[in-house]
Amino acid sequence: MPDSVEVTDSPVQPVPGADSSVISDWLSRVASQRGAEEYQTLHRAGEFALKAHRHQTRASGEPYILHSLAVAEILHELRMDDETLVAAVLHDVVEDTEVTLKDIESEFGGVIAQLVDGVTKMGRIDRGAGVVEASGHRDHMQAESLRKLLLAMVEDVRVVLIKLADRLHNMRTLRYLDEARQRRIAQETLEIYAPLANRLGVWQIKWELEDLALRYQEPKTYHEIANLLDERRENREQYVQEVMERLRHELEKVGIQAEVSGRPKHIFSIWRKMQRKGVNFNQVFDVRAVRVLVKEEAECYGVLGVVHSLWRHIPREFDDYVANPKYNSYRSLHTAVIGPEGKVLEVQIRTHEMHRHAELGIAAHWLYKEDAKYDPGFEKKIALLRQLLDWKEEDLSPHDFVDRFKSDASDERVYVLTPKGKVIDLPQGATPLDFAYAIHTDVGHRCRGAKVDGSIVPLNHE
Fold first, then answer.
1. What is the pTM of this model?
2. What local confidence, expressed as pLDDT, does residue 270 receive?
3. How many C-beta neighbours within 10 Å does residue 460 have?
4. Catalytic position from the list 95, 155, 250, 320
5. Among 94, 205, 325, 339, who pairs with 197 as Cys (CB 3.0-4.6 Å)?
6. Is 317 a catalytic residue?
7. Which residues, including other chains, have CB under 8 Å from residue 280's CB and lie 6 or more apart?
8. Which member of 47, 73, 96, 224 is catalytic?
9. Is 96 an active-site residue?
């Protein structure tokens, strides 16, 4: 059970308000555009979870079922398939109730059972290894090892998406916990879950996780930036509206059909730029920002030309992620200009397809359609993608990268947890002796025996 959830048992009656009406309301939001079969399956899952969690509440006092439904609704907003939503509704029943995986498989099939099992296991690893140091921060390499472990241990990447949605809803309701737990969970979110969302390219979740985490990690700073944004909102929105109208007019003149809109402001992003560049709020470029969406990739550069012809470009503030995508496949043009009235303006330019992938990331693969089916072959590509993403964050030359790819592309890694929850990353075929030496040379020298999962094994046991 996630740390940000508190369950209490009611000895007699179900929690008031936790009846079938909450399932009906939820279905009206998430299943109205889905087929009849998917609707019925989601309805059965909702009723099943409602019964399983009937005696449980969260720290807020609300019925626990509302959390399960909220997690599924977040995934619906990512336009995930019905299997993912069903598993999201059921994601805590095995961990927190008398329901077994066999019950899930019997009622909903093997795929749903595997997804629920994956989320359950991921939560156990998370709690076992996700201990923040006494200082309040986890060692960077240890945090990265844990992220790799969480990705490597799941056979279906949808498990990670369910876990991210679970954490997002827990962060949305974090105010009901005491301050110490709020800060610990917020730190864990910044170190583990927001980077996971970033790695999978699900920026829609990444941004909100970061903003919510900052709210509890640095409440004074968060509210100062929020107040500055709010105080100047009317003037800023009027300014951005005038910029948008001017840009639309100029794009129409050159025959480019584009959708021009204001861009949401993310407090964490503003704070991070203030920290990284050592500037104040007024010097952050993307406080005033617009986004332009076009049909074709070539039109992105046409829009860029129009923008730079209208306003003076700021040197070193242009990034071409269309020609050079980020490691998580994010693609967009970013530029900053001196706009009307001498105010700095950021402009993002991308195609509608790029925007869909920027917001949904890997989740875009499961955009639900009536004939959409889960493709197991896609998971093989994701497994390789995980490895490639890891390598691209390292400082490797092209030659080293190719050699690493050749030597490791077909290999597996073994992630072993110490009793204190530290993750040790070893190659396939590693033995307890390798594990001992990885901890410390003296431990390896003194090692005389080993236990794996509670059983005594020889030191050469793979």
1. 0.70
2. 86
3. 10
4. 95
5. 205
6. no
7. 274
8. 96
9. yes
